[in-house]
Amino acid sequence: MRAFISINSPANISIDFNELAGVKFKAVDNKNIHLTLKFLGEITPKDAEEISNALNFIENGKKFKISLKGISAFPNENYIRVLWIGVAEGNKELCELQKMTDTALKFKFPNEKDFVPHLTIARLKYANNKASLKTFIEKYKNFEFLEFTAEKVSLMKSELRKEGPIYSEIKNFLLKN
After folding, report:
1. Closest CA to 43 of 161, 152, 138, 155
2. CB atoms within 10 A of CB 66
3. Alpha-carbon distance 83 to 122, whole Å?
4. Model-level pTM?
5. Residue 135: CATH number of its domain
């Protein structure tokens, strides 16, 4: 099974993608928007159990506030393949949690290289109209989307289907007050 570790968004994020004329893209379904701490790839049920045991340290962590602000792009704004929402408040806590996750899982998975806390909102195939794409990014550059409290971290399973991925929680790790 394909798996990842995330903090899931508790609310819908509404973005008017109609402004992206001439851009072929696939928006991420609202119910699938999340902050990925670590993508694991293919794992076995035994791996899931070992990963769950290694992540038990998370339950000693404290809840923290996350505010989502601004749209940006990967790999860069001249060659865009992914549109994402950034993290303002909570960025430091997410980076620390991600590093601790890497340390806990070093027995099986390599460390992330350049972790940037974000929520992927769309994947682009190609853009005939790069001007509309740049205008779109500029319009939302400082937009404040929502704030929420990170209350749990989830080990998630991803089933790839033609109509889009189906995510389900394997195990969650509750953060304390």
Report:
1. 155
2. 22
3. 5
4. 0.91
5. 3.90.1140.10
| Rounded distance between C-alpha atoms, residue 130 and residue 121, angstroms | 18
The total of structural domains in the chain comes to 1
Following DSSP, what letter does each residue of the chain receive, concatenated?
-EEEEEEE-SS-----GGG-TTEEEEEPPGGG-EEEEEEEEE--HHHHHHHHHHGGGGGGSBPEEEEEEEEEEEEETTEEEEEEEEESTTHHHHHHHHHHHHHHTTTTSPPPSS---EEEEEEEEEES-HHHHHHHHHHTTT-EEEEEEE-EEEEEEEE--TT--EEEEEEEEEPB-
What's the CA gap between 87 and 7, in Å, rounded? 12
Q: What pLDDT shows up at residue 61? A: 93
Q: pLDDT tens for residues 5-40?
A: 999 998 888 888 888 877 888 999 988 999 999 999
Structural domain harbouring 50 = 2-174
Q: Which residues are catalytic?
A: 34, 118
**Mean pLDDT, each 10-residue run in order, the chain (177 residues):** 95 84 86 95 96 94 96 88 96 97 95 94 85 90 94 96 92 94
